[in-house]
Amino acid sequence: MASVASPVIFKEFCPLYYLLNAIPTKIQKGFRSIVVYLTALDTNGDYIAVGSSIGMLYLYCRQLNQMKKYNFEGKCESITFVKLLSCFDDLVAVGTASGRVAVFQLVSSLPGRNKQLRRFDVAGIHKTSITALAWSPNGMKLFSGDDKGKIVYSALDLDQGICNSSLVLEEPSSIVQLDYNQKVLLVSTLQRTLLFYTEEKSVNQVGTQPRK
């Protein structure tokens, strides 16, 4: 008996003008006009997060059709990576070109959810550009990697407003990808891919030959 083919759904892809029009193409700083470049992107069912070259994070809420802006205090530097997470609270982690990492705990209108915007900073372990971020599914762990091969683990206690960070791994080449699940951190660098077991603090390399 021949199987019935599933119906084909056609989708049209077009620029998100409603999103792009809410982000300025230039800003004025003193007597200078500075071009705004979009440098990082992440999406989920609720938000679209866009990082920029002026250190501003643009966060578009899909449910409310609203754009909100968040920035780092002090020096305006390029955002190099953003990572969203929807768990009990909505979280977004942001990394910059100088190695700053911040977590924003977003405000929610739902009952029992967070009612005040809070920010957590990963204290000065990274000194160079952030190239990868990875959340644990419950939002209690954040891993960050940089272009010098450092990987930092940050333990977040959202109820107490505490973020404790420590260096857990250092590779000889730039981190290009991180992913975390079930106490195992997948790490890809320019030279190799490995599994880091966070409980045992052990490393298992994937494959035997270094990348060319």
Low-confidence stretches: none
- CATH topology name, in short, is Methylamine Dehydrogenase, Chain H
Under the CATH scheme, the architecture is 7 Propeller
What's the average pLDDT?
89
Tell me the name of the CATH class: Mainly Beta
- Total DSSP helices: 1
Work out the strand percent: over 45%
Description:
The protein has 212 residues and is mostly beta strands. It has one domain: Methylamine Dehydrogenase, Chain H (7 Propeller), CATH 2.130.10.10. It is 2% helix and 51% strand. It is built from one helix and 18 strands. It has one helix at residues 17-20; strands at residues 26-29, 32-35, 38-43, 47-52, 56-61, 66-71, 79-86, 90-96, 101-105, 118-122, 130-135, 141-146, 150-157, 162-170, 175-181, 184-189, 193-197, 202-206. It has a four-stranded antiparallel beta sheet, with no helix packed on it. The protein has a four-stranded antiparallel beta sheet with strand order 7-8-9-10, with no helix packed on it. The protein has a four-stranded antiparallel beta sheet with strand order 11-12-13-14, with no helix packed on it. The longest helix has 4 residues, at 17-20. It is globular, with a radius of gyration of 19 Å. The termini are far apart. InterPro entries: WD40/YVTN_repeat-like_dom_sf, WD40_repeat_dom_sf, WD40_rpt. This is TCPR2 protein. Pfam families: WD40 (PF00400).
